[in-house]
Design goal:
It contains eight helices and three strands. It is an alpha+beta fold. The radius of gyration is 18 Å and the shape is elongated. Keywords: Hydrolase.
Amino acid sequence: MSGSGKAGATDYLAGYPAELTARVQHLIGQGRLAPWLLERYPRAHEVRTDRALYDYVLELKGRHLRNAETPSKVAFDSKLHDLRNALGTHTTVARVQGGKLKAKREIRVSALFREMPEAFLRMIVVHELAHLKERQHDKAFYQLCRHMEADYHQLEFDLRTYLCYLEQGGAPLWAAASPSSPGEAPPA
């Protein structure tokens, strides 16, 4: 998912039907994708700190995965997208403590999500939480994602279209706007 220009942007939509990819490219070329995204997702969320992200993740985990192991660390990672071409990661860190091996789970979310709509943040968090139960991206994994977020696949597609837009030089849509910008109603 590196590079720029029209060829690189389609990497985010690899695996989707060609007519869908072409439609996204057309919307970007016509300057209509940004208004469409802003209409669907008008505001950025308010989860800005690692502590707020940790609380957000634990709330979702408590709602959907009560019996899964609780991550010991959750954080935004500013290098994740650039270094690993990943939007989020889940890792297990093993340490020897006394005579026992202790494992701690960590979730890292790309800092790109710090200023995006809550729906996109929820989608990536659901994805990483699903890895607490299902390691592979298989049928059971995606069923769990859809259990936690019924619109998981649509949100993933919309996020991918936004990443194509950014890669082709589009300005970030939510970075300058905060949830309490002048002239906007406060979030519900």
